[in-house]
Design goal:
Layout (H helix, E strand, L loop, with lengths): L6 H10 L24 H29 L10 H18 L3 E9 L2 H7 L1 H18 L5 E4 L4 E7 L3 H16 L3 E3 L2 E3 L2 E8 L6 H21 L3
Antiparallel strand pairs: 1-3, 1-6, 2-3, 4-5
Helix pairs in contact: 4-5
Length: 227
């Protein structure tokens, strides 16, 4: 039988034994050696750059969608949504800072016969020509929109009500002089304009309704005069 060492001798022997070296931990992936808890700055910078590029692309896409949402796909000018947004801005500016602005509401005359006789493609050509004519006839600070099938509107900034009425009459004349070729035919239409001056704080729907009413009043007057 082997000898049993006293308990004290065993403990003393254990204390005298040289300790075994501990295994060194490898730094975790993405963490620099010697800097526990800190990410690799090169990799972090690359990730930030990637996220910034994705964010810039998303913002550009949102801006593109917003532009399409407020543009008329046929004529390329603003649609009703985009025009009403600009009207709200103009009305808020007039209310806060003063100044003048006016809305011109335009409805085409003799447009339905063009569609009925020559087809919708010819009608689309007339609408595009009218839109281009209106854009050329106003200032860069003004805004032209197609707000319905054959209805257009113009926001005139920094013009008195009297000057806006004169401008509306000039727009009637330039549209009436616009012609569009369709096969062997030369197409033209007329337009009737109604004017409403912007009042600060006015509801935009009421403003458009006033301009629309002025347009119909002028249309009735012109028909009464045989125009």
């Amino acid at each position: 039988m082997g000898k049993t060492l006293p308990i004290r001798s065993a403990r003393a022997k254990a204390r005298g034994a040289s300790p075994q070296p501990r295994a060194r931990r490898r730094p975790a992936e993405g963490v620099a050696a010697g800097t526990p808890g800190h990410a690799d700055p090169v990799r972090l910078a690359g990730e930030v750059a990637r996220l910034e590029a994705e964010l810039a692309a998303m913002r550009a896409r949102v801006a593109e969608l917003e532009t399409h949402a407020e543009s008329d796909p046929l004529t390329g000018i603003a649609n009703r949504r985009g025009f009403e947004r600009e009207l709200n801005r103009a009305a808020a500016y007039v209310q806060r800072y003063g100044g003048n602005a006016a809305l011109v509401y335009l409805d085409l005359d003799r447009f339905k016969p063009v569609n009925d006789r020559y087809g919708h493609a010819a009608g689309d050509g007339v609408l595009k020509a009218v839109a281009a004519t209106l854009v050329k006839a106003v200032r860069a600070s003004d805004m032209v929109a197609r707000i319905g099938g054959d209805e257009f509107a113009v926001l005139l900034r920094n013009l008195s009500a009297r000057d806006a009425r004169h401008k509306a009459e000039a727009l009637e004349q330039v549209v009436a002089a616009t012609t569009v070729a369709s096969g062997e035919a030369t197409l033209s239409v007329g337009v009737t304009a109604g004017v409403a001056e912007l009042a600060g704080g006015e509801d935009i729907a009421e403003l458009i309704a006033r301009a629309d009413a002025a347009m119909y009043a002028r249309k009735r007057k012109r028909r009464g005069n045989g125009e």
